[in-house]
Amino acid sequence: MTRYVRRAVRLLRTLSDLGPGPTAAVVALLVVAALMPSGLAVALGLLVNAVESSAGTQGSGPAGVSAAAMLPLVGFAAVYLLGYFAESLVGPLEYLAVSRVDRAHRARVAQMVAEAPTLDLVEDADTQRMIREVEADPRMGFDRTPGQGALGQVRALAGLVGVLCAAAVLAVHAWWLPLVVLAPATLNRFLRNQQAVVITRHWQAAMSGEMHADVWRRATVDAGAGKETRVLGLAQWMTDRMQRHIREANTPLWRYVNRLVLDEWSQLLLVVVGLAPALLLVTLAAADGSGSLAVQATVLSAGTAVFQLLGSSGAAHRIAGGDAVLTTTAKLAERLRPTDGGGHGPRVPGRGLTASALSGAMPVVTFERVSFRYPGTERLVLDSLDLTVGGGENLALVGLNGSGKSTLVKLLCGLYRPTAGRILVDGTDLADLDPGAWRSRLAVIFQDFVHYPLSLADNVTLGHGTPDEALGRAVSQTGIARVVDRLPDGWRTPLSRSRDGGVDLSGGQWQQVALTRAWLAVERGARLLVLDEPTAHLDVRTEAETYERLAGLRGTTGSLLITHRLATVRSADRIVLLEHGAIVESGDHDALMRLDGRYAEMFRAQAQRFENDLSGSRGGTE
Ligand SMILES: Nc1ncnc2c1ncn2[C@@H]1O[C@H](COP(=O)(O)OP(=O)(O)OP(=O)(O)O)[C@@H](O)[C@H]1O
């Protein structure tokens, strides 16, 4: 019982997102709608009674009957119309209420996930399943949302008021009538609640399969994947895979619901068990003269109302679903909540925020015997790595694919914590710094930076409200001018083909956008530039210009550059070669060439290829 009360309270609390006025309106209308069946039962009884008594009056003809029945008839019609009016108003109001509650819930979930300080828990398969369950994404056509649950709960409570009223109507005719009707109706309600809980569990169990289906569902409609879908003829394959995952995920749920449909006769039996004795008893009373047709009509209507109000499975499903979503949301919050270490979640950051992390100084980041493996994997991606980055130094990190370069960047940003060892920022453990404050010291371009389907201005400022002068300086100092000039609406052009007036950029143009983001971050105070393959798509001229501009930041920021183009790292203060997560060579270009090791071998191989290409193209033109 307390479980039911706790569940109801939790669901009803979400109505605070709706506000008192709309909540009161929905509650009032639902109560009026729930009282209607009892009102109709009473009005029907009065009407039949009027017809019966005027028909029994000596000498009264049809005109007499109609006149006597007129008032109850008008009453009946008024009650009916009021109920009809309440139901038709409550539909759209309920819809608005559900959307508002769910919108606030979705915003909370989005913020909770986006603010989790590290990525490991967000990437975890269980977390992803929980997010899929609680995000209440309308694109998925979910009816299991906190809003649906809350409104289902209001409907159920309003229904209880209606049931009490119907029971009172029955009790007027005989004290035992409500007991006879309520017992099977309550049992019916209990069974439906249980079924709703089982259905919700099946729905939750189908989540992983649905997530597989999502991959294919998105791929079939995603404009970005559209090229391959068409050129490689993937449409049928994708839709087959989507259907298969949906089928496999939902078969247990569908089987259970099929069984329920077949077992529906048992619910009917409960209705008969509840209503038949009541009707039989009032009929017998009518036969021996102590009852009447009016009583029969009232009892039948009020009894049916009890079953109607208690037996609806719709509200039960919505309540069970909404409750499950709120339970999972609470678990998700717990999972993503920072702890004081030792717990499951990430550690509470910000305890030892250093002065230099907030000052304008260029930070020095020290990796001390750092080892790292991604959660759920066995392989060490970084292995006892010792490295110092920053402090104004221009450091280049090179290495073969998969050697751990991007992973090192993610650790430096505090997106993961080392499996062993520690990372110090100016002598303070990174885990003890406030992640937001630390990240504001960094200007990072990830290898797979995000192409937001927003305007160019939004794409470079990213919500920082950069003033126009800063954009102006960006135009003159980052080379973005060439991109801006080609866009139909300049800075305001949406960078997505799927938006009105939108265009897409080439890979190289996108990299110029990302470089401008980093440049603006430095303007805002970032003092360590971290660039993971920032120029891989740039033409030779633009690349050379970019490095010239970056060299201009020397003295303002330190930098960590990751690249496969070794020609671009020659001027770095220090080059570090990473292999299998460990540093195998370190020094400036000349020193590494003298060492004649792996770096020198890679450098010569690239230079040789460049020479070959050059002589090939000269041969072609001769
Ligand atoms: N989120 C992840 N979960 C599990 N393993 C990962 C994850 N990200 C990367 N890895 C693995 O970590 C290893 C190092 O990847 P990383 O991206 O750091 O290499 P890299 O040196 O940057 O490679 P590249 O030069 O190709 O960009 C790879 O074997 C990769 O499969």
**In the CATH classification, which architecture of the largest domain applies?**
Up-down Bundle
**Would you state the CATH class of the largest domain?**
Mainly Alpha
Separate helix tally? 23
Which ligands are bound? adenosine-5'-triphosphate
Summary of the model, kept short:
InterPro entries: AAA+_ATPase, ABC1_TM_sf, ABC_transporter-like_ATP-bd, P-loop_NTPase, Type_1_exporter. The chain is α/β, with parallel strands linked by helices and 622 residues long. The protein has 23 helices and ten strands.
Detail the topology: elements first, then pairings.
Layout: H1 2-13, H2 20-56, H3 62-114, H4 120-123, H5 125-134, H6 146-173, H7 177-205, H8 207-221, H9 226-231, H10 235-262, H11 264-287, H12 293-311, H13 313-336, H14 355-358, E1 364-372, E2 382-390, E3 394-399, H15 405-412, E4 420-425, E5 428-429, H16 435-439, E6 442-445, H17 456-461, H18 468-478, H19 481-486, H20 507-524, E7 528-532, H21 540-551, E8 558-562, E9 574-579, E10 582-587, H22 589-595, H23 598-621
Parallel strand pairs: 3-8, 3-9, 6-7, 7-8
Antiparallel strand pairs: 1-2, 1-4, 4-5, 9-10
Helix pairs in contact: 1-6, 1-13, 2-3, 2-6, 2-12, 3-6, 5-13, 6-7, 6-12, 6-13, 7-10, 7-11, 7-12, 7-13, 8-10, 11-12, 18-20, 22-23
